[in-house]
Amino acid sequence: MYRNQKIAQVLWITLGLNLMVACLKLIYGYFSHSLSLEADGFHSLFDSASNVIGFISLKLAIKPPDADHPYGHQKIETLATMGVALLLFAAGYEIINGAIDRFNHPVVPIISVNNFIVMIFTMVVNLWVSSFEKKKGKELQSDFLLADAIHTRSDFFISLSVLISFVAILLHLVFLDIIIACGIVIVIGFVAYSILNRSIHVLLDTQSLNPDHIRSIVMSVTGMRSCHKIRSRGSGAGIFVDLHIQVDPQMTLDTAHRLTHKVIETIKKEFPLVVDVLIHTEPAYPK
Known about the structure:
The protein has 287 residues and is mainly α. The chain has helices at residues 2-32, 35-61, 75-104, 113-140, 143-170, 175-203, 211-219, 253-270; strands at residues 226-235, 238-247, 274-283. The protein has a 3-stranded mixed sheet.
């Protein structure tokens, strides 16, 4: 519960900042007829939408396991992370449409000192938000926050490209505004693909922990003969581990049971994100 409250606090802060940045970019982009600035504004607006998705997924993901979902609802956070990627693809589509329209109906943007001030200010905000989300994402082991941090970091470089387009317009190279808007779409697409790819790995139960690391931890427990068939799945919201261990064939059932629980405790101590460990205990007969 503590983890989810902290994630919610981060989302509230980033939501407020993203909305402020989006409004500034869209207003100045509209009145100055700068396509690249408007494109960047829509991108920032989608940042705010992703924060709202984060709130909804957080509310659903904290539900305890039930009869229909014995492993819990943690993957809802992963689905929300995929939602961020899909929103990015949608933003890219809108920007491309705007670029095509601008190509067919050229308009010379009006660039002033205010445009530069707005972009530099929003770049500073984006850089801070990205660093803040990344730090908290690692601290709270939140895939959503880490994905959103990557998303927000892309805003910084997109805003930098918009600044360059302003300089190009002042040099009467108006066509560069359209080209840079298209470049923004490429960056957005790359970021969206990276987030989507990471989420798919979680949904497909890709190995979460290094099997060799788990094996070394298990074999450090006194009484262990061997360890094999090690599997792990999940994400920062919760990792599940299952494995087979072999012990002395002469060991009593009670002793083997105690040893198995010792292995479980050792694994959870080494990997705090592990929420459940399933162990099959076997006698280590000579080959």
